[in-house]
Specification:
The protein has a single domain, classed as 3-Layer(aba) Sandwich (Rossmann fold), CATH 3.40.50. Helix 1 (26-36) packs parallel to helix 2 and helix 1 crosses helix 8. It has nine helices and seven strands, in the order βαβαβαβαβαβαααβα. The chain has helices at residues 26-36, 49-60, 80-94, 117-142, 169-186, 204-212, 215-222, 229-241, 251-280, and strands at 17-21, 41-46, 70-74, 99-102, 149-153, 192-196, 246-247. Strand 2, helix 2 (49-60) and strand 3 form a beta-alpha-beta unit. The chain is α/β, with parallel strands linked by helices and 281 residues long. The structure holds NADP nicotinamide-adenine-dinucleotide phosphate. NADP nicotinamide-adenine-dinucleotide phosphate (NAP) is lined by residues 21-22, 24-28, 46-48, 51, 76-78, 103-107, 126, 130, 153, 155, 198, 200-201, 203-206. NADP nicotinamide-adenine-dinucleotide phosphate (NAP) binds at residues 21-22, 24-28, 46-48, 51, 76-78, 103-107, 126, 130, 153, 155, 198, 200-201, 203-206.
């Protein structure tokens, strides 16, 4: 665990203390970098200590004030006690969080016959229950402030079912449902909620997924384009500043999020045709 001291942040920064799960890589790391450049003190949470230490150095180097601190806590979000301990230790070090961004995630695509029940359980434990554990561990520290913002990471796969993502889609649908219920629950307590629907983003997770994606899944997801983690991070911070509930980086996700129920039957038929063509080939 490491920390770096910088100068007190100016009043204008987006947050005083942001906790980011999955902050050592990809979208979480890009968001941490952008927040550090905005003057925020940050706690990065992930499992791998090597990547965490490197991320702390990288993020702290972008800080702008001597009072600003960047620290890390090692935890697996799927383990309730571990994430509670990590959050509590982060609060002791940097005070209650006013921004919590939940990027820790796992995706193992494959045709249904290649997906074991263990893959379904692990994906749910990290993506859905990991988000629940983090929210429940942070809220008691946020209630007394009567302010703050929770950011949950869903996916385009949380808006429409896609072949090859049978283990992943339900967890991201669940995160969407959780975000909708939390928004209503937390509004009277002064705490905002956003849910992010990133398109395909060039990160280690996508690289891992690509090794397992069936060709028909690759053909379908290719239509959505490829974004950089920095683009997604910029959209997340813009969404938080504007207090947007749904944060949709890129026009494809914006259209899908706004029109999902209308276009779902058409998209399902379109995806079926792509999948059938690829399987025949
Ligand atoms: N990349 C995409 O195309 C894409 C698209 C839509 C949605 N998303 C979602 O966006 C989020 C971020 O994805 P990403 O692509 O940026 O992934 P990434 O680059 O692979 O980073 C994942 C981060 O989560 C941490 N992590 C993974 N499992 C964890 C666990 N059980 N407990 C604590 N930390 C854990 C990883 O560190 P350790 O492994 O060291 O723990 C790492 O810091 C995920 O929820 C993902 O589902 C991504």
């Amino acid at each position: 665990m490491s920390a770096r001291i910088l100068e007190p942040p100016p009043g204008a920064c987006i947050s005083r203390h942001a906790i980011i799960t999955g902050g050592s890589s990809g979208i979480g790391l890009a968001t941490a970098r952008a927040l550090a450049a905005d003057g925020t003190s940050i706690t990065l949470i992930a499992r791998g200590i090597g990547n965490l230490d490197a991320a702390v150095k990288d993020v702290a180097a972008r800080g702008i004030h001597p009072g600003q601190r960047v620290i890390s806590r090692q935890a697996d979000v799927s383990a309730k006690n571990g994430i509670e301990r990590a959050i509590s230790s982060a609060v002791t070090a940097l005070g209650p969080p006013d921004l919590v961004i939940m990027c820790a995630g796992y995706c193992r695509p494959g045709r249904i016959e290649s997906l074991s029940s263990e893959i379904f359980e692990q994906t749910n434990a990290v993506n859905y229950l990991g988000t629940v554990h983090t929210v429940l561990a942070c809220l008691p520290h946020m209630y007394p402030q009567r302010r703050g913002h929770l950011v949950l990471l869903s996916s385009g796969a949380g808006l429409i079912g896609v072949t090859g993502y049978a283990a992943y889609c339900p967890t991201k649908f669940a995160v969407r449902g959780l975000a909708e219920a939390l928004r209503a629950d937390l509004k009277p307590r002064g705490i905002g909620v956003s849910v992010v629907y990133p398109p395909d983003t060039d990160t280690p997770q996508l690289e891992f997924e690509t090794r397992f994606k069936p060709p028909e899944t690759k053909a379908i997801t290719a239509a959505g384009g490829l974004y950089s983690p920095e683009d997604v991070a910029t959209a997340i911070l813009r969404g938080i500043r504007r207090n947007r509930f749904a944060i949709t980086p890129g026009w494809e996700m914006t259209c899908l999020e706004r029109c999902a129920s209308l276009v779902r039957p058409l998209l399902a038929r379109y995806f079926d045709r792509i999948a059938a063509r690829v399987r025949r080939a």
